[in-house]
Automatic annotation (TrEMBL):
It comes from Hymenobacter profundi. This is TonB-dependent receptor. Keywords: Cell outer membrane, Membrane, Receptor, Signal, TonB box, Transmembrane, Transmembrane beta strand, Transport. The lineage of its organism: Bacteria, Pseudomonadati, Bacteroidota, Cytophagia, Cytophagales. Residues 1-35 form the signal peptide. It is a multi-pass membrane protein. It comes from the Bacteria. Belongs to the TonB-dependent receptor family. Residues 67-167 form the TonB-dependent receptor plug domain. It is found in: Cell outer membrane. Residues 187-625 form the TonB-dependent receptor-like beta-barrel domain. Pfam families: Plug (PF07715), TonB_dep_Rec_b-barrel (PF00593).
């Protein structure tokens, strides 16, 4: 189901035409396109044609009715153009990320599940490593996409493999007719931190281009304290330096009035020294991570029909070496293709059917041989709005993998606007979903220990919630949402030491139950030239093993390791004239560090903030000076056991913007 919006064509001079062609020639060699996906307007009509048409497709999340979704504040994220997704999520949301240190491995935990249970999609394609089954959020720069959305909860019917605990969606929707705009920023901070970024975009009614690049490095030689028999001793962190860069190219080209061509390129590279544990000897470990991601697609709209074909090719390299490991290399090539067809059956009823094929080619030292694997899945998504205040979805997906068959993954969801007043709106939400995760290549083929007979993990989850909007005057709004959920994951894969052998091996041992509540409230106030946005979010997460086999030594009924029971995030963004002030505070409760719940890390509260002023040099140019401070209370804390985190530190930034 699509919306077709026609724009009246404007005359263009030869000079303007040459300018556009020059930009296209310089940017299109990396051939990148991202189609704009906007909400559906079922009442769209086309009584006559105008010279230029803008065709907008429905977002995939349109079929995720009833599920909670959070889109990161783009203004707050814009303060970190050379930052990582790990930094943005940990500072702006109550989501817990297990962080081994600045620039080090950062893995996500959504609703009490592990990092392998979160699907990360870029332009609709899963970018989790097939070997590990997860993404390192410290390697994902925030300017690789312009929109970052988190949808917690099971949703494999819509998003595919791995979406048990939740899904992170990275996209770059186009703003048509925006002309030229961009920005460049340079950062300098403590402990050898240097960073820079640049982003430039252009769009008219037929062509949209976006280029973004970032670079960052740091020595990470910060001081920390180690507890010894003689008391606390101050040390200086060693072997923690990192260097990262990223390049993104997006482009969209309209082909007539009914079609468009899409493509994208995303290149990332990181060279990291692996920070040793507190009290451990420096092993001089280092890791090289490289990812090459290419995407291309075509979409055609005709009447009530929309057909899309998309292809992606990824190359992921992970090379590790240390004093004890001479070299361990991993290279995986992933080829994917997706095709779908959407049909507007009625003004309030749409159906999308599609399929996906994946091919993995892995050369990993730990496997002892080159491996290839093919995976397929088909799905059907239905959206039905029986009345303007009621929205329903029913989705289903079936995956096919040689040698095993993941379960059928259905989803039901609904949203009902039960009350609307001049100043109040109340919406009820609910969904039920079954999801799956295919065991990773490492879990099945690592030598020694891999278990090729592992079963897919399955999850059955429910959630329900209420959203209230209060808008007494045009300049004031308050949106509050409360969600309660419960889900069980069966055949949870766990690595355990063998009974008769010296190595560890994964097994389908456990049934894990996660339940909790999520509460958020966002206030927006704009009296005159003053602007305030304040958001508070709280998450209560209880995740426990409820049953296991006799040879599983871990107890039942205790909180899983590195799953905090309580997390809180409170952010404010204020602007007045040229001034801007941003504050970020998060609280993370204690976390067990072992499955027996005998050791734990204490809770901690982190406070960060930034203050900046923008000078408008011309009508289309501006200069922003920014001071950012992190861990302002100078707290000593650990996100992961025995991994030091930096004390109070700051960054000075200078940003030039144009449009």
């Amino acid at each position: 189901m699509v919306r077709i919006r026609f724009l009246r064509a404007t005359s263009s001079t030869p000079t303007r035409t040459l300018r556009v062609l020059a930009v296209a020639a310089s940017l299109l060699p990396t051939a990148a396109v991202q189609a704009q996906r906007a909400p559906i307007d079922t009442s769209a009509a086309t009584p006559h044609l105008l010279p230029t048409a803008v065709v907008e497709a429905a977002r995939l999340s349109r079929y995720a009715v009833g599920s909670r979704r959070t889109t990161l504040d783009s203004v707050a994220v814009n303060q970190l153009p050379a930052g990582t997704l790990a930094e943005a999520l940990s500072r702006l949301t109550p989501i817990y990320l297990k962080n081994y240190g600045p620039g080090q491995l950062s893995s996500i935990t959504l609703r009490g599940t592990s990092a392998r249970h979160t699907a990360v999609l870029w332009n609709g394609f899963n970018i989790n490593l097939p070997t590990l089954g997860e993404a390192d959020f410290a390697l994902l720069p925030v300017n690789g996409a312009t929109r970052i959305t988190v949808q917690p909860g099971p949703a494999s019917a819509v998003y595919g493999n791995g979406a048990l605990g939740g899904t992170v969606l990275l996209s770059s929707p186009v703003q048509w007719g925006a002309g030229w705009r961009g920005q460049a920023q340079a950062d300098v901070g403590n402990y050898g931190m240097r960073a820079g970024s640049v982003e430039n975009s252009f769009s008219n009614e037929k062509l949209a281009l976006r280029t973004a690049a970032s670079y960052r490095e740091g020595q990470n030689d910060f001081p920390y304290q180690e507890r010894t028999i003689d008391g606390l001793v101050e040390r200086r962190q060693t072997n923690a330096a990192y260097r990262q860069w990223s390049l993104t190219q997006d482009a969209t080209l309209r082909l007539g009035q009914h079609s468009e061509l899409m493509g994208a390129v995303w290149l990332t590279d990181a060279d990291r020294r692996i920070q040793p544990a507190i009290g451990a000897a420096n092993d001089n470990a280092q890791e090289r991570d490289q990812s090459r991601r290419l995407f291309a697609g075509y979409r055609h709209v005709a009447g009530r029909h929309e057909t899309g074909v998309r292809m992606a090719w990824f190359k992921d390299i992970l090379n590790y070496r240390s004093n004890t490991v001479a070299q361990s290399n991993s290279r995986v090539r992933t080829s994917q293709i997706q095709a779908d067809h959407s049909l507007q059956l009625r003004s309030n009823l749409s159906v999308r059917v599609g399929g996906e094929a994946q091919h993995f080619a892995a050369r990993v030292d730990g496997y002892g041989q080159d491996l290839t694997e093919n995976r397929f899945s088909g799905y059907a998504l239905v959206r039905y709005d029986p009345m303007p205040t009621l929205r329903l979805t029913a989705n289903i997906r079936q995956a096919f993998i040689p040698g095993r068959r993941p379960p059928l993954a259905p989803t039901l969801g609904g949203e009902w606007q039960v009350w609307q007043h001049d100043t109040h709106t109340l919406v009820l939400k609910g969904s039920a979903a079954r999801s799956y995760r295919v065991p990773t290549l490492n879990e099945r083929y690592w030598r020694p220990g891999g278990n090729p007979n592992l079963l897919p993990e399955t999850s059955l989850g429910y959630e329900g919630g209420v959203q209230h909007t209060f808008k007494p005057i045009p300049t004031l709004s308050l949106v509050t949402e409360l969600t309660a959920y419960r889900q069980q994951v069966r055949n949870w894969v766990q690595w355990l030491p063998g009974d008769t052998v010296s190595y560890w091996s994964p097994r389908n041992l456990r049934r894990v139950q996660a339940q909790g509540i999520e509460l958020s409230s966002e206030l927006g106030w704009q009296p005159g030239r003053y602007n305030l946005t304040a958001r508070a979010a709280y998450a209560y997460t209880r995740s426990q093993k409820v049953s296991g086999y006799i040879f599983d030594p871990d107890p039942v009924g205790v909180q899983l390791p590195y799953v905090p029971l309580h997390t809180v995030a409170f952010t404010t963004r204020q602007s007045w004239r040229g001034w801007q002030l941003l504050t970020q505070s998060t609280f993370t409760s204690f976390r067990y560090t072992d499955a027996s719940a005998t050791t734990f890390l204490p809770s901690y509260f982190l406070l960060s903030g930034s203050l900046g002023y923008t000078f408008h040099t011309r009508s289309t140019w501006s200069l922003t000076a920014l001071v950012q401070g992190f861990n302002l209370t100078n707290l000593t804390y650990n996100s992961y056991e025995a991994r030091a985190m930096p004390p109070r530190n700051g960054v000075l930034s200078l940003r030039v913007s144009w449009r």
